[in-house]
Design brief:
Number of domains: 3
Number of helices: 6
Distance between the termini: 70 Å
Structural class: alpha+beta
CATH topology of the largest domain: Jelly Rolls
CATH architecture of the largest domain: Sandwich
Shape: rod-shaped
CATH class of the largest domain: Mainly Beta
Length: about 425
């Protein structure tokens, strides 16, 4: 912290996959120039204003309390001539004049003594005056910020004898909406006298402000001076956090949907996404579909490990990368494992939950024949046997209850048993279906 009491200058620091169900639908890795000339509307909710008439050295205290410590202040003591812009705390402040008198860039620095020697911090030798290089006088002094700020304030001096000269701020927010502050009423100090402090704090962001001089509600081109401009920059941007989702599994030829929806930005900024494949099995030609979305698709073409990397951006900075690993097996290997698991599940069922011993033997035979065909590489025969098996276990999944007697009736009588066995068989069949 630095504070020069003589000039009142302050610079403060302030993819586990579930393979049950219809895999033909794919896998989701859920494992896997500003309008200063416009008239200002009525005061809107949002900005907070701080208006303190007179030359009290604590006239800006409310603004300081609201702004906290991370602000900068420019006193113009080291600047001369016409000021078009200055820097304050990493913010470029573009200075101009507008209103009655027209729009121009820059405002003149005036050398004089402003304020009173009896009030600490109100004696200045230089200040901005509402006069252009051409000597034209304007009713508005404008300040535009790059990037947007969250607070602005300034001391205003000198009414050149017009005791009823008043001031207000017109604030343009980051959405282009304008807001008007209460009046800073004249104190009648006369030439060189301080009228007071006027400021605004708006966490949602301020794109620009205009200090407007009025008499009886009418803008006037009477001289006024502005000094000790307070600028509160936007809060430090926090980087976004990428979340590529948990690791998962996949099967060759079946789409896996990656999931980056858990990525967040601490500041609430909108995110953009960029995925990339950073590791694939040797010889793989797989690529991500729509890698600029939060949920791209991967169709693995070879068994092995696939590693996808996600980076998100909040409009300012990239996040650190996050990666998700997808372990992929060959479709025949997967279908075999599913079929053998279904076979084991059927073997463990009590006879009371199977229609007949003959039906248990038939279902076991279908699954055994499918596993054998898979081991021999006869995918067509495996599909045929699995199709015969699946229709004997699908009543609960498709119609909410076991199918009764007749052609195509179910051989498992309990929906919980069907859910397990049907899911395994249907997963294997879907993986083998082109």
């Amino acid at each position: 912290m630095y504070e020069d009491l003589g000039s009142r200058r302050r610079i403060h620091g302030r993819v586990t996959a579930s393979f049950g169900g219809s895999m033909a639908r794919g896998l989701r890795c859920a494992f896997l120039p500003l309008p200063f000339l416009l008239s200002a509307p009525a005061l809107a909710q949002g900005p907070s204003y701080f208006v303190g008439p007179g030359d009290s050295p604590t006239g800006d205290q409310g603004w300081l309390d609201a702004a906290g410590s991370e602000y900068s202040e420019e006193d113009f003591e080291s600047i001369s001539g016409v000021v078009a812009h200055f820097s304050a705390g990493g913010v470029t402040v573009n200075v101009g004049l507008a209103g009655v008198g027209g729009v121009v860039t820059g405002a003149e620095i005036l050398s004089a003594n402003f304020g009173t020697s009896s009030a600490a911090g109100t004696v200045y030798s230089r200040a901005l005056v509402n006069r252009a290089a051409s000597k034209s006088v304007h009713s508005r002094m404008t300040f535009a910020f790059s990037p947007a700020v969250t607070g602005f304030g300034a001391w205003i001096f000198d009414d050149f004898g017009q005791g009823d000269q008043n001031f207000r701020l017109i604030v343009t927010d980051v959405d282009g909406q304008q807001h008007s502050s209460p009046l800073l009423a004249a104190t009648g100090q006369g030439m060189g006298g301080v009228e007071g402090f006027i400021g605004v704090v708006a966490p949602e962001g301020i794109a620009a402000v205009a200090i407007v001089s009025t008499v009886d509600g009418t803008e006037v081109t009477s001289f006024f001076e502005v000094d000790h401009v307070h600028v509160l920059g936007a809060p430090a941007n926090l980087p976004p956090i990428a979340d590529a989702g948990p690791d998962g599994n996949g099967v060759t030829g079946l789409a896996v949907t990656l999931d980056g929806d858990a990525s967040v930005d601490p500041d609430g900024d909108l995110l953009t996404y960029q995925w990339s494949l950073v590791e694939t099995p040797a010889g793989s030609l797989a690529a991500l579909g729509e890698p600029w979305t939060s949920t791209p698709r991967l169709v693995p073409d070879m068994p092995g490990l696939y590693v996808a990397r996600l980076v998100v951006n909040d409009g300012l900075v990239d996040s650190p990368p996050d990666e998700v690993r997808v372990s992929v097996v060959d479709v025949r290997e997967f279908a075999t494992a599913q079929t053998l698991a279904a076979l084991a599940a059927v073997a463990e069922l009590p006879q009371s939950r199977v229609t007949t011993k003959g039906n248990r033997q038939a279902l076991t035979s279908f699954l055994t024949q499918a596993a054998s065909a898979l081991q021999q590489g006869d995918l067509a025969a495996a599909r045929d046997r699995l199709a015969h098996a699946v229709v004997r276990t699908d009543g609960c999944a498709l119609r909410g209850a076991p199918d009764g007697k007749g052609q195509g009736c179910d051989w498992l009588t309990d929906c919980a048993d069907q859910q397990l066995v049907y899911g395994l068989i249907d997963g294997a069949l879907a993986a083998l279906t082109p």
